[in-house]
Amino acid sequence: MSTPVAPSAAPQVSKNEVLKFNDPTLGGTLGEFLQDGSLDHINEEDEQFIKFHGIYQGDDRDVRKTGKKYIFMIRARVPAGVVPAAQYLAFDSLATQYANDTLRITSRQSLQWHHVVKSGLQKLVKGLNDALVTTIAACGDVNRNVMAPPTPSTSALVDQVIADSKRVNEALLPKTEAYHEIWINGQPLKLDAAQKQAFVDPLYGRTYLPRKFKIAFAIPPLNDTDVLTNCLGFIAIADPANPSKLLGYNIAVGGGQGMSHGNAETYPRVGDVLGFITPDQLVDAAKAVLVAFRDHGDRTNRKHARLKYVVAEKGAAWFRAEVEQRAGFKLAEAKPYRFERQGDLFGWHRQSDGNWFLGVYVESGRIRDNGPLQLKTALRRIAETVGADYRLTPTQNLLIVDVKEGQKAIIEGLFAAHGIDANRQVSAVRHNSMACVALPTCGLALAESERALPVLLGHVETVLGELGLSDEEIIVRVTGCPNGCARPYMAEIAFVGRAPGKYNLMLGGNRASTRLNRDYKPSVKIDDIPAELRVILGRWKAERQPGEGFGDFADRVLLPKS
Ligand code: SRM
Ligand code: SF4
């Protein structure tokens, strides 16, 4: 590409802004890269463009000492986590052919393929397209995968919320044709420089958003999507006289998790509820919030470019007026609602139509065959044999849905044949846990996370066992750095990676996922964690009020008054 020229009106903007300005189609030279058999990796500029196509370039950090091995991560958009059986089979086969034979359920109900090398890159994306799935805007300065409650139909309201989340997802997709040309047709976008310059996305404009933008839906009292951690949250409000009828949504703005160690200007934040909208106002409201962010987000400093900082610094009332002006209508006053808990349901449950669904625990979302535990093969065989659809959850688990009474035994049998007890109940702590990917694929990881989760959960379980508290539920989340990909700042206990083998210990989130946790002890060595747990969990046992959850206890007793 030619040397970028900064837009003269805004000379101080960040490098990414210049890149977007110079090629608003977001194609870069990705088409040329795919056609050039001599290249195994992309240049720095294309590294930014390819994110808008749902792909990250990285290197295998396990083998860095012996040389750099370029690998790609591909992330699909899976709105509301809904995966029909045929699609799942395509995902499974693509993982075996072009990735590391695993599928990774993400904390936003999508799927990732890891360790893809250049020769498999286009084939995998094209394979997803053939299965009617896109990776466009799964990453980049755009709206990401829209989350919605994964629990299958328990009422007409649930169905409507899922349908609404898909409408919003669709309405906020970028319109560049570069994605199709490069990944599906396998060629560069056939536009000259002037034609590229002339492209302006009708919603995002020429330079897209200042940073990523995230949306989730939730249905109180269950906060299974961690809705208040999103830039924009839609909280479904049911008609009190008819709980299966949707009245509309309270909208919450300015939530987020990411921060940087030692930079007090970055922080996690819980969203503010701005007001109430009716279902027919949904898409216009979503667009108005997105465009208000587009117009007011910081384009000079990417660490300060999220919507949460706009709302925190200018105030919710100011932002509400900006949204109303763009939407062309006033928001009504927010309706009362209450969240009581987060998390997934495990084991068999009845749906409202008489069918069943099965909640399956997937340790940190990694679907793989691991010795005698052959989860990947089992899920493939179930999709082939029963044709049951899957739903991915925001806590990195999986639901098998719409199962007929007569199919339950077949599913249990297929799991058993692959070393898994479908009715197996792991500990409550394990069920409520999450870990981000971290090493070896994440270039930003400071410590292990997914691979450290079993050890860390083992420590928590051992100490709870010693105290006779094995059945207690505690929300434990782990990340390899402070970016917050497993939403650690909402957990009752969080381990946030600081350096190899060292984690900041944070305490005090609540079960409804409406309160941020706080620092308890920085940089605790992994070997010292059992001793720390003995102190804090021991005090919980001895001093808690009747029924008091660990996070509430920690917030009340173990942490300084906030
Ligand atoms: Fe994330 C960056 C993985 C959910 C905050 N995240 C990354 C990257 C792409 C690393 C990078 O930029 O080089 C990670 C790729 C790791 C790998 O090897 O696969 C990564 N994030 C993930 C996933 C896969 C974690 C998981 O284990 O499930 C999640 C994918 C979600 C999806 O399907 O779209 C994931 N990331 C989140 C969440 C949680 C959420 O959205 O609910 C957050 C916190 C919420 C928020 O955005 O505030 C999150 N990821 C970040 C940040 C910090 C952003 C910030 O503004 O502070 C980064 C770093 C960045 O963007 O520069 C990041
Ligand atoms: Fe990587 Fe940090 Fe996100 Fe974990 S939290 S996946 S280490 S960026």
Write the layout of secondary structure elements.
Elements: H1 15-22, H2 30-35, H3 44-49, E1 55-59, E2 70-76, E3 82-83, H4 85-98, E4 103-105, E5 111-116, H5 118-130, H6 156-171, H7 178-184, H8 193-198, E6 215-218, E7 232-239, E8 242-253, E9 272-277, H9 282-296, H10 307-314, H11 316-327, E10 347-350, E11 356-360, E12 366-367, E13 369-370, E14 373-374, H12 375-385, E15 389-392, E16 398-403, H13 408-417, H14 428-431, E17 434-435, H15 453-466, E18 476-479, E19 493-499, E20 502-507, E21 518-525, H16 529-543, H17 550-558
Parallel strand pairs: 6-7, 17-18, 18-19
Antiparallel strand pairs: 1-2, 2-5, 3-15, 4-5, 4-12, 7-8, 8-9, 10-11, 11-16, 13-14, 15-16, 19-20, 20-21
Helix pairs in contact: 4-5, 4-12, 6-9, 9-11, 10-11, 12-13, 15-16
Siroheme (SRM) binds at residues 56, 73, 75, 106-108, 110, 112, 144-145, 214, 229, 256-258, 306, 365, 396, 436-437, 441-444, 483-487.
Describe this structure in words.
The structure is a single chain. The chain is of the alpha+beta class. The protein has a domain at 430-558: Sulfite Reductase Hemoprotein, domain 1 (2-Layer Sandwich). It is 31% helix and 19% strand. The protein contains 17 helices and 21 strands. The chain has helices spanning 15-22, 30-35, 44-49, 85-98, 118-130, 156-171, 178-184, 193-198, 282-296, 307-314, 316-327, 375-385, 408-417, 428-431, 453-466, 529-543, 550-558, and strands at 55-59, 70-76, 82-83, 103-105, 111-116, 215-218, 232-239, 242-253, 272-277, 347-350, 356-360, 366-367, 369-370, 373-374, 389-392, 398-403, 434-435, 476-479, 493-499, 502-507, 518-525. The strands form five sheets. The protein has a five-stranded antiparallel β-sheet with strand order 1-2-5-4-12. Strands 3-15-16-11-10 form a five-stranded antiparallel β-sheet. The longest helix has 16 residues, at 156-171. Siroheme is lined by residues 56, 73, 75, 106-108, 110, 112, 144-145, 214, 229, 256-258, 306, 365, 396, 436-437, 441-444, 483-487.
